[in-house]
Structures are given as C-alpha cells and as structure tokens.
Amino acid sequence: MDIQWRKSSKSADAEDNNCLELAESGGEILMRESDNPDVVIRTTRAKLRAFLGGAKEGEFDDLA
Hints:
Layout: E1 6-7, E2 20-25, E3 28-33, E4 36-43, H1 45-56
Antiparallel strand pairs: 1-2, 2-3, 3-4
C-alpha cells in the first residue's frame, strides 16, 4: 500500500526545517516527523479533530 504523506505548505524544505506529516490509511490517521519517518503515530479522525480544535483555540500556544 502506497501511503501519501502530506505536510503543511508552511513547512520549509530546508534540511533544518523538519515538520510533521499526516496521511490516511485504512481508516486511521497517521502522523510522523519528517526527520524520523520510521516512527509513526496512529490515531482516529475524531481524536485528530479534537486536537486540532484545541490547537485552533490556542490551548497549546505555550508549547510553541
């Protein structure tokens, strides 16, 4: 199965500008860091939606 990884258009392609990549496979959402692509986190759409909602509301701004 060929997984199509996606990253934000705000991510740079420079070597020192790594980013998170997302993909969908078998009904799951997959996440990985571009600088460590062998480590993949699996989650559901509902959990990702809840996280993104919190991020949009600034709940994690203190971590950035």
